[in-house]
Please model this.
Amino acid sequence: MLKGTKKTRLRMKVNGNPVEIMIKPTWTLLRVLREELSLPGTKKGCEQGDCGACTIILDGKAVNACLVLALQAESKEIETIEGLGTPESLHPLQESFLKYGAVQCGFCTPGMLMVAKALLDKNPRPAVKEIKQGISGNLCRCTGYVKIIKAIQNVSG
Amino acid sequence: MQHFEFYTARHIEDALTFLSEKGERCKVIAGGTDLIPALRKEDIHPDFVLNVLELRSLNGITELNHSIRIGSTVTFTEMVESDILSHFFPSLVQAAASVGSPQIRNRGTIGGNIANASPAADVLPAILALDGELELESKKLGTRRLPLSEAIVAPYRAQFRQDEILTGIFIKKLESGTRSAFTKLGRRNAMARARMNLSVILRLNNEEVVEELKIVPGAVMPVAKRMERAEKMLIGKKPETSVVEATATAIVEEIVERTGVRWSTEYKVPVMKSLSKRILGELLT
Model:
């Protein structure tokens, strides 16, 4: 059995910026983002791919950061909620979530926004059914789904 | 998570050498959607983890003369979006579309679903019904083919050698006029582990007689298998309502025979019977 704590170099792009750090092979991308790169906007929920709170975009595709070993992100482009907008200039999805009251406790919001961004990047005019399918891997513990769906619909088309 | 060393192979030869050296101390990772939770729960304790996601020969869906090759690291999303698969094997596309959530489909792979051999895997019954064959590579044996039905004989254990990597899945094109369908029942639409699923391949001849039929229920048995007894009830016959009804009954009888009566049998029998009737009905209209 190996008991080492040897670290390995990881290079990737996060929100457009090149990142190079030493990490342990057992660390997930979620842990590296939150604890090593100080990007805690990506939430840690169930840690088994059920809740979607840790959704990020990896090379254009929405994935659960808790189900990616960080070293598998070598040379990849990662987008997190921190790259979506700034307080001065919100992303249209963020504006819309505020306008429609799609944020209650806020814990699912970063994941919802990232999965919505991935959906709209690929399909700018999704039908309501497609929006529902798009967010089907994200749980809102306040059950505010109707407003979330409206907010996404408002940005599309 | 217990410590392991991580290696990303850039060429298939590197991957095969690495695996032949490390043997059973090594686990292969592709999308990781099943493996990472297992590592986190410490159900498995590999000393080495071999990443095969960067191997080009494991990517892509290719049309060959008589068959289609699906690379083992093709994701469920890639299967759902594939024109080749939609054209040749709609049931496989339906099965891939029913897996997990969009995030899981973007990451999880067909090869991982097979290698992990979960009794609730969605694509296994669909590939079994299509008589899929696995392409396995190792340093020692080179490349060999193994029918999926021979590879999956126990839950969570695919019968590959320790030094073998699943590189692709071959499925023969179906004879013209053959139809395929997949249906699934889960507790919640997204993420639901299949409670029951069913894949069927069916072909009628010019006289409307059933010439070919393959029925594979999934998730209700420890290992997905064809229901050959039920198939025989319909093959060579015209699919009249009474024959379809008898076939559906035979399907549930065979399942109960294999699994024994459990607490859930009372629920599963009528539901599986209606699923069977529904899917056969769809294919026959």
Q: What stands out?
A: Residues 120 and 219 of chain B are 4 Å apart (CA to CA). Chain B touches chain A at residues 1-6, 8, 29, 31-33, 36-37, 39-40, 45, 47, 49, 51, 53, 77, 100-104, 106-107, 189-191 (CB under 8 Å).
